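Students often ask what a 'structure token' actually looks like in practice. Rather than answer in the abstract, let us consider Transglutaminase-like enzymes, a protein of 766 residues. Its sequence is given first.
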Amino acid sequence: METQSKLIGSENLSVQTTFKSTGKTLDLTASDPLLFRLLLSLTLMGLFAEWLHPFTAIVEGSSGNRLIEVLYVLTAVLLFIGMFGFRWFVSTWIYVASILFAWMYAFEEGVSLSWMRSYIDILQNDAVDLLNTGHYTALSQETRTLVLVIGWCMLVYSVQSLALFRRSIMLFAVATVLFLIGLETVLDLQVYADVIRTCMLVLLLQGLTHLARLRDSDASGVIRKSVYGIWIISVSLAAVGLVAIVWSGLQVMPAKELNRASLNDAVGHVQAWAETGYMQLGQEKAETGYNLSGDMIDMGQPIIQNSKPYFIADSPVQTYWRGEILNNYDGRKWSMKPDNLMPTTAINPFGSKNEVIAQEKGNLITQHVEFKQALRQDFPLFGGGIISKVVAVETGSPKALPVMMADPLAGTIKLAVDTNTAGVVGYKIETYIPKVELDKLRLQGGTDPSTIKDHYLQLPGELPARVKELGLQVTSGNTNRYDTVYAVKEYLAKHMTYTLDTRVPAQGQDFVDNFLFETKQGYCTHFATAMTVLLRSQNIPARYVMGFAPGQKYAGEANRYLITEGDAHAWVEVYFPQQGWVPFDPTPGAATGSIVSPVLAPQTSDNNIYNVFSYTWSSFINPSSWSKMLGLITVLNRLNWVLIVGTSLSLILLFLAVHHLWHSREMYRLWKQLHFTRRTFPHKKHLMAAANPVWEGLGRRYGAIDPGATVREYITSLNIEEEIMRSRLYSFADDWEKIAYDEVPPNRTTSIAFMQECWLIANQLV
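Now compare that with the structural description of the same chain:
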């Protein structure tokens, strides 16, 4: 028989647990004095502070420090609430309110309904981005912060519950010590004092919880308040005394310096392997995207494709999106001198002659950019050419207009954004697209201005001689600048291979030299850098451009384009004295490899599905199988009818799931190719395989292609009422024929667009 324990003091709270050893139901939080629970919670607050304190030395910017401060306050509030052990329907609302207030204060000065309404739109975009990419990094900063706050709240609640009700804190204590040691090992932070404080707090917690365990195991379940006081004072003195003894001992006899020889030796071995021709190991893979941090790192890091949407653009013509010009190459990375930038105005960012130049040398167009997520850091204005005018800058707050900086020599504009504002959500610019006539370029001559030569012929003094010799060899025999430039572009396309799976060259090795003579494979950074350096070695002014490829049409809308992180790109601009800067993209498509005959008809896979289904059905209705089925039914009748229904539904769902997975296996391969496995540029056979789900869907809905019919004849013969679907299929047929029969490999943008087109059409045909 269970009896209610006696209570100490007037606290009578609701959290209860049953102990099998005594058969008693004890109200734990009520049995512990409020002062005891307060001291236990304060000690836990100290442990949580040890988790947060090191990050104050790591995070940068006011937003990061603000988040740490919010987590401090949230932890204190949650521990205070947890002391009283409210019923779940009360505590749940308190916890939810605390989370929401903390989350909002991390971004705003206070609670703002307008900000909450704006977050609904952000959340919708996050849901779409997460479904499209499957990556947590696709979420906005607001959503990721919300997830962090919720996770932190769950951690605080769990640890306090274990301490108060289960009398257990060792798991969290060990995790805290390991966390601090990990920070010292990985980030080289000084955490010795933190570890000492943690040990003292753990000893104090162990003493407090041990007294509570003794009370729980006692038959009466009662301990006098005076015993609590004596125990708390004794444990506190013992914990502080032990830590003080250890600390003073270290002052008398300091610890020996850690011997890190083994780690240094390991690093030395890796460097030695790299210097002797081995590829560096363990390099972290980054995702494709535009680097706005301003921190220039050594080039060559392996990357994976990222299809997260970056911005939507309205433009009368499809263009590359020019961002920044980098002019200084040091053998490992590109950089730009900060003094090149100067404050400017929106009307004439490069001087009063800017619009005249635009009318003489290019077509003036208007472009509008809308970011998927507001940018809260400095960024360049992306445009199709030289920007003539900044028509508008759209911000989350009209009071937070960014400062506009221009680089007149490069023809680029950068916005300096305050990180504490709502950020920039879009802008509208007028830009001109240069008119370039290739035949006239071959006939042009002239002398390069001294300003151009001073800025765009720079090469590192340590550039290997064989790079210059190769540049001379490739360009010899050409009588004009255009043919010389084209010869370099063709050499790279012929002798180098496109891949995202690369490595940073060993320390002391030139990036271009490593690419041209050793690895001979890379992505746009490799090709654009190599072309720029080879041209400069022959006294041809060239510069490295960062921006975005044109992207793809957005939802079938005219003059509207979607640019993703995967469209981040680099190319080259070459100077022609009578023309100005002319862009060239040296990054090639994939090598075609072997030519694979296209497979138009999907009858085989469909027939296999129907054969399997037919065999399963015929086996089920075969009379010889009924005896076994009756035996199974007899056994099932002995079980609860709920189990029978649940098992039946589970089997039906399992069958439907297997059938769906088998039927959609080609779609899965296409999805995997789009989002995960495309570390190298897709070959022709991969692009042909990407079209298989489309042919299968067309075969199921409209019938297989007739023998001898062409792809265009087959598409034309289909009775498709939807105009958008018919237009997509015609575009798909054109792209498929080009890939299947052209000897020239498709470029990067075309390949990605074709696979995404296949994915959209196949989903509509399901």
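One point worth highlighting: Residues 287-292+300-584 form one domain. Ask yourself how you might have guessed this from the sequence alone, and why that guess would often be unreliable.
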